[in-house]
Every structure is written in C-alpha cells, then in structure tokens.
Design brief:
Layout: E1 4-10, E2 18-22, E3 29-30, H1 34-47, E4 49-52, E5 57-60, H2 68-76, E6 79-80, H3 83-86
Antiparallel strand pairs: 1-2, 1-6, 2-3, 4-5
Length: 104
Amino acid sequence: MSMMHIRAEPFTAGERVREFDWDPETGDLSGPDAPWVRQCITDALDCGRVGAHPAPWSIAVSDPLHSLSEMAAVVGAQHRLPPELAAHYPSPPESDPSDVEVLY
C-alpha cells in the first residue's frame, strides 16, 4: 500500500476538517494536520485504547501508524472517515443478550 491522503470531515460544527497523508507500511505521516494526528495517537497510546462508535465501547491500540483499523479508530473517534479508511473501522463486539440488564 502506498501513501493515503486522508480528508476527515468533522462530526460537529465546532471542529474543522482534518487533512493528512499517511503510509501505513512505513508509518510516515505528513501534511497540515499531521501534528494533530500525532497528538491523537499519543493520547490513545497513553490510554491504551480509543473511544469508538457506537458508544460505549473502545478499541485497544498499540501501533496506529502501521494499522489501518487502529488509525481508523483514532481518527474516527472525532471525525467522519473517508471511504478508504472507513472500510477498516473496527466493528463493535457482539454482546451476549444475557449480559444486558433491562431497567424499567
């Protein structure tokens, strides 16, 4: 795989579009929002996880610079993903119906 140009649209009006170039094979990251992506990765690695949609669940991360699914989770936590990255967004785990407590 070669360098991918990522343009991620915000979920909310208060945030801006984020654009960066990323090569998942080499981990190279460049472009105007590369520093923002690096900070998001650092935050996720510090926690060992990143919040995911639909809430409430999270995804373990260990090497987002070399993992399509982890990068999708990191960027997708705050922005809509372009199709080439959205295709790799992790699916939530299936829950066991016996684990669900119904409250009335």
